[in-house]
Amino acid sequence: MGEWKLLDGNHAAAYAVKLTQPEVIAMYPITPQTECVSYISDFIEKGELKAIAVRVESEHSAMCVLLGASTTGSRVFSASCSQGIAYMTEAIWMAAGSRLPVVLGVVNRPIGTPGGSIHRDLNDELLNRDAGWIQFFTESAQEVFDTIIQAYRISEDPDVLLPSMVGWEGRVVSHTAIPVQLLTKEDVDDFLPKYDPEYKLEAEKFTFKTVRQVFDSSYEQVYVSQMAMENAKKLIKEVNEEYGKRFGRSYGNGLIEEYRCDDAEAVLIAMGSIAGTARVAIDEMRDEGVPIGLVKLRTFRPFPTEDLREVAKKVKAIGFIDRNRNPGSPGGGIGCIDTARALYSMDRRPLMIGFYAGVIGRDVRPHEIKNMGEKVIKAAETGEIEKEVDWIQLRE
Amino acid sequence: MMKPPSWREVAARGGSALALSSNNVIPAIIRQSPTGTWRVIRPVVDAEKCTKCGICVTYCPDGVITLGEFSAMVNYDFCKGCGICAYECPAKAIEMEREKA
């Protein structure tokens, strides 16, 4: 086990990247991500990390550099956020379509107008929900560190071969320092084998620079990607368990983390840093004797359908706290919609409320989470909901 | 003609375009679809001026220029006439000429 350090999320990510030793790292600055690649370039400058740092002219180029490098069998990393992810999107889809195990840090920050917030919101990562990437949402600098190391192991597995986004929220995770326990180089080398793909582009074997498929197998490839996601579901759980056994830290079952859900009548579901705040609110409510629990979604793709069904069997009402916008949606934010589909086939479904909270960087405080908790508990008790979609922080 | 692969065969080969391509088959497939027909202007190499430095070979985005015995050679089946080779050529040995209808 490694030493303890006082690190913010960006710095913890840089340490994780240093230990996983990518060979090519593309760098382009954007607030609040900039420090992450800046710390990495420090490591390269000091000779602590041997990697090719490519200072690109845009995020789009950053991902294109990773596509090329990953195709030749290199381990790669980059990080960005917000508009950067939006600009990168075209190449992001290609990484998944080409089954390249790229790992990308996403410092979740709101996209563009309204406002010009440089705080937190999950829309940038969720923008690429359908691309075929594994998507992690983390709660603390420690989880950022652990998840990046796990993400390489999961992405590079021959049964998965899907790229991973590791999200940590702007400011509250990226710029808030907490004690983080690192791993030693030996720990990581032992946990994470060297990336050695069966298929890679070797310059001397190809005269053409683009790879063309022999047949149109695109439909089959997408189906196989769906299967790879199912494999990832299993592997994320296994890797989380193994990581826990080796290094003493694990996050729920890897896909979801249940907090005080025993005998709960209702649960709140949250992603990212809101889950951290929610623990405080849930503790207070439990102290008052309110039967409520919290479920943290650690991965949004693959979506933990089976695990959420198990939770839903036990409770009468669910409230999904969505830190993303989705105007014109069938009801609630992106998380709420996906959860509703996951639970739709159940014989007996719990009631469901979609809460919009923390959208475009607004802080979510424990008393607001208690307010949401009270609403789902009321729904569980009465069997009725006041508002299907609740803008809990709206000023009248 | 080979049979298109089932999803199981696609899965067995890692599901990527790279895995589904074969070194032997690719040139044959590409030969069936010459993309050079899009070209409006064509690069013409002046063998007298060409120094065979290879800069055009490196810069060509389609990888269709090779070094021949006397000068750089362009494969017109796939050259799209972008003109980068002519722009980069230090010896000014490549002229872009309009294709005849």
Give the helices and strands, then pairings.
The complex is a heterodimer of chains A (396) and B (101).
Chain A: E1 4-7, H1 9-20, E2 24-27, H2 34-45, E3 52-55, H3 59-71, E4 76-80, H4 82-97, E5 103-108, H5 123-126, E6 134-137, H6 141-155, E7 164-169, E8 178-181, H7 185-191, H8 218-247, E9 256-259, E10 266-271, H9 273-287, E11 292-297, E12 299-301, H10 305-314, E13 317-322, H11 334-344, E14 351-356, H12 366-382, E15 389-391
Parallel strand pairs in A: 2-3, 2-4, 4-5, 5-7, 6-7, 10-11, 10-13, 13-14, 14-15
Antiparallel strand pairs in A: 1-8, 6-12, 9-11
Helix pairs in contact in A: 1-2, 1-6, 3-4, 6-8, 9-12
Chain B: H1 7-12, H2 17-20, H3 25-32, E1 41-45, H4 55-59, E2 65-67, E3 72-74, H5 84-88, E4 94-98
Antiparallel strand pairs in B: 1-4, 2-3
Summarize the structure.
The complex is a heterodimer of chains A (396) and B (101). Helix content of chain A is 41%, strand content 18%.
Describe this structure in words.
The complex is a heterodimer of chains A (396) and B (101). Chain A contains twelve helices and 15 strands. Helices cover 41% and strands 18% of the residues of chain A. In chain A, 52% of the residues are buried. Chain A is an alpha/beta fold. With 101 residues, chain B is α+β, with helices and mostly antiparallel strands. Chain B contains five helices and four strands. In chain B, the strands form two sheets. Chain B has a two-stranded antiparallel ribbon. A two-stranded antiparallel ribbon of chain B has the order 2-3. Chain B is elongated. The two termini of chain B are 35 Å apart. Mean pLDDT of chain B is 84; it is low at 23-29. Chain A binds chain B through residues 71, 97-100, 158, 161, 197-201, 205-209, 211-217, 220-221, 223-225, 227-228, and chain B through 2, 4-7, 10-11, 13-23, 25-27, 29-30, 61-63.
